[in-house]
Design brief:
The complex is a heterodimer of chains A (113) and B (113).
Chain A (H helix, E strand, L loop, with lengths): L2 E3 L4 E5 L4 E3 L2 E3 L5 E8 L6 E7 L7 E2 L2 E6 L4 E6 L8 E9 L4 E3 L3 E6 L1
Parallel strand pairs in A: 2-12
Antiparallel strand pairs in A: 1-4, 3-9, 5-6, 5-10, 7-8, 8-9, 10-11, 10-12
Chain B lengths: L4 E3 L2 E4 L5 E6 L6 E7 L6 E7 L2 E4 L8 E4 L6 E5 L8 E8 L7 E2 L3 E5 L1
Parallel strand pairs in B: 2-11
Antiparallel strand pairs in B: 1-3, 3-8, 4-5, 4-9, 5-6, 7-8, 9-10, 9-11
Classes of the chains: A mainly beta (113), B mainly beta (113).
Chain lengths: 113, 113
């Protein structure tokens, strides 16, 4: 069975600094998708970034980028130039080719002014 | 464009009572998801619909939970009877297909007393 592990329950970063959130997963499948979702205190979850497993190039969305290490089954999220609005719960998620989706337990990110 | 709509936003009931949650997905989205999110945890998929067909309900506790998506548009999730352990946030999400980006609703926070 697939699993998703986020080993950092909470993290803090100074405003304008860079922070990296860790995620590891376990699967025997070769075709899958990985995601980072953000859930602010208002609780509406939004997609931050996605990565297709068959793509070697790391996905980037403005200040957000991932470090996808397929062999190591690692999928970390880097947030550059952290802003106060980045404070939220961040969830790493795995989705199989057939649509089965599993979320990690989340990392709460605090931004220090 | 309107997002995923869920109602009610909050619900307080006594144990053993029935409760129902409603979700209206984004127009045109044929895939609909119901998730359970316990406090401090990531969402757990309860059921996924492709149009009106439930294609993944393996995590739905069928002894007390039921769901329907008549006409393949809006959906209702029901719990009968509710137990104390059902207190959680119930999230609905939708997408154009299971391979496409999910958009989440604000959730329904259930408290069972």
């Amino acid at each position: 069975a697939q699993t998703v592990t986020q080993s950092q329950p909470e993290m803090s970063v100074q405003e304008a600094e860079t922070v990296t959130l860790s995620c590891t997963y376990d699967t025997s499948e070769s075709d899958y998708y990985l995601f980072w979702y953000k859930q602010p205190p208002s609780r509406q979850m939004i997609l931050v970034i996605r990565q297709e497993a068959y793509k070697q190039q790391n996905a980037t969305e403005n200040r957000f980028s991932v470090n996808f290490q397929k062999a190591a089954k690692s999928f970390s999220l880097k947030i550059s130039d952290s802003q106060l609005g980045d404070a939220a719960m961040y969830f790493c998620a795995y989705r199989s080719a057939l649509g089965k989706i599993i979320f990690g337990k989340g990392t709460r990110l605090h931004i220090l002014p | 464009e309107a997002g995923v709509v869920q109602s009610p936003r909050y619900k307080i009931i006594e144990k053993k009572q029935p409760v129902a949650f409603w979700c209206n997905p984004i127009s045109g989205h044929n895939t609909l998801y119901w998730y359970l999110q316990n406090l401090g945890q990531g969402p757990e998929l309860l059921i996924r619909y492709e149009n009106e067909e439930a294609v993944d309900d393996s995590q739905l506790p069928k002894d007390r939970f039921s769901a329907e998506r008549l006409k393949g548009v809006d959906s209702t999730l029901k719990i009968q009877p509710a137990e104390l352990g059902d207190s959680a946030v119930y999230l609905c999400a939708s997408s154009f297909g299971f391979q496409e980006t999910q958009y989440f609703g604000p959730g329904t926070r259930l408290l069972v007393l």
